[in-house]
Amino acid sequence: MRVFVTGGTGLIGSAVVAELLDNGHTVLALARSDASAQAVEAAGAEPLRGALADLDTLRAGAARVDGVIHLAFNHDFSSSDAVEKSVAEESAALAAIGEELVGSDRPFVTCSGTPYVPGRASTEADPLMTEGPVGGRGRSVAAVLGLSERGVRSSAVRLPRTVHNQGSGGFAGLLADIARRTGVSGYPGDGAQRWPAVHALDAAVLFRLALEQAEAGTSWHAVADEGDKVLDIATVIGRRLGLPVESVPAETFGPLGQIFANDQPSSSAYTRQTLGWEPKHPRLLEDLENIQP
């Protein structure tokens, strides 16, 4: 299958591109810079120059392939306005790609976060949040899944709080970055909040399985760790960086403070049973031991 991938040079995207190529697919990957284009070529894929905001380029890419995997997102969490702008940009991109695929029965795999369900681990049957700081992403994903009624084999891989590789990535990576900047490995509240996690290489396998097998309108959970306590995450980060581990105000985490403070475990039992997906790479707390002081 020839696959158009957005975000193909990021932590997750580079793993997805390699996974696709290793399993006999060919890849056309969106590249927004010369450096990204060179990275795509070095991986064995074909670059398509353009950015997520270039809707004509996205349509052209989707028109040239047998399926699409969307991963690109501007991870600017510096302010609420920046987050809103990133969500709006992604929403327009998804709509443009989706319209190009209508009536083709081609697969379109997008991504989102796992939902928040008070008092228990979320499952694949739970709806995404459509309000709050990133509620727009939930609405965009719902629109993509709705394309199942218009001749698109659309599906969504829901990613946990932390997608990691070699100690980097996700919300745990943000905690480490904030710790380096502030001199404290901080956590919100009492740190008992649980965050799900997955290794990027395991997530990549699930994106491929969804592309190849997922029925139209379905959602899947790329969750290896159902919920690691944030205090445990901060403790490993503090030890690796040689910093004190302390509870800090939610404002320390900027516009993501409210999200960071939530308990949000998540299950992938249905995904494992249905698609035969089984994580094999290091879990988060083990992988964080790769953080360099």
UniProtKB/TrEMBL annotation:
Residues 3-78 form the NAD-dependent epimerase/dehydratase domain. Signal peptide: none annotated. CDD domains: SDR_a7 (cd05262). InterPro entries: Epimerase_deHydtase, NAD(P)-bd_dom_sf, NAD(P)-dependent_oxidoreduct. This is SDR family oxidoreductase. The lineage of its organism: Bacteria, Bacillati, Actinomycetota, Actinomycetes, Kitasatosporales.
